[in-house]
Amino acid sequence: MNNKRDKGQPANPWVKQTGPTEEETAAAEPELPPSPWSLEVPPRPSPWTEGGSAGAGDAWGNTGTADAGAAWGDTGTAGSGSGGWGDTGGSGGPAPGPATETSSAWGTNVGPPSLRRPEPVKKKKSGLPPLLIPIVAGVAVVALVALGLVVLTRGGDKATPQPSPTAIVTTPSPSTYSPPPNAIAVEHGVYVVPVNGWSVLASETKGKQLVTYAPNREPRAFLWVRQKQNTTARTFLLGIVEGETENEIAQLGNIRNLACPKDVLVECVAITYTSTSKGIKVQGFVEAYRRKDGVVTALDFRTRSDYAAKAEADAAPMKQSVIDSL
């Protein structure tokens, strides 16, 4: 063995070297500066997250507070400084330009609120033009005032219920009527004079009823003189005709106002009717006369239709005798 070894052979780690090798004795070449592209670049801290203190120095030799400089050689408010990229900075605030959301390894940054004025909220337009709104309001106020005035003015004009007509009682002048000898007294100075073939129905106690009979003693017609006080002639007449035609098929005429034949009379009315009673056709009339003293005298005439001509002829003078005595 000798101390020589082949060139290019690796040194034996088990042999102690006594002098510099040929490679070591070769002229040392100047060392090149490290490439910034091969260095590990630390992540740049976000200006919107809590950064805390940067410590005594960072990977690029920068020192200062969290706002003094960043890993890119920026300097804070303490003065100027240089980084690996030779950038100089001012204050430790965020980089110029609007901050936006980024997908970085250390989180999501949220930009500051926008300083732009928000869009005004559009109001819903009303169905009426603005100029018509005060006009419509004025018309409504006028209408309400007018309605209130109408209610106030009519409040005291309520119609009071009118009492039913009553007979006006006055004292008539003394009658100059002188009844004939065959006159039959009714009441209140009223008389009736019967004609031949008519006689008084004795069983009737209200007023006087004159009846005519057929040869078989069946009644063929009657004239009933009735009286009532403190009522009207119309009311008394309606009560009589309703009683005569009760339970019958009747056809009533209209109530007629008669010309009162004497000054002592104040109300004179009449009505006619036809009816069917037990299969027999009948007809009749009712006349009522009210005097000033309130006495109402009614003439209730009723006859079979087949005997109507003769019965009406006989009833005419009897009716006149009653009117003469009123």
TrEMBL record:
The chain crosses the membrane at residues 131-152. Keywords: Membrane, Transmembrane, Transmembrane helix. This is Uncharacterized protein. The keyword Transmembrane helix applies. It comes from Kribbella caucasensis. Residues 31-46 have a biased composition (Pro residues). The lineage of its organism: Bacteria, Bacillati, Actinomycetota, Actinomycetes, Propionibacteriales. Residues 1-127, 155-176 are annotated as: Disordered. Residues 76-94 have a biased composition (Gly residues). Residues 56-75 have a biased composition (Low complexity).
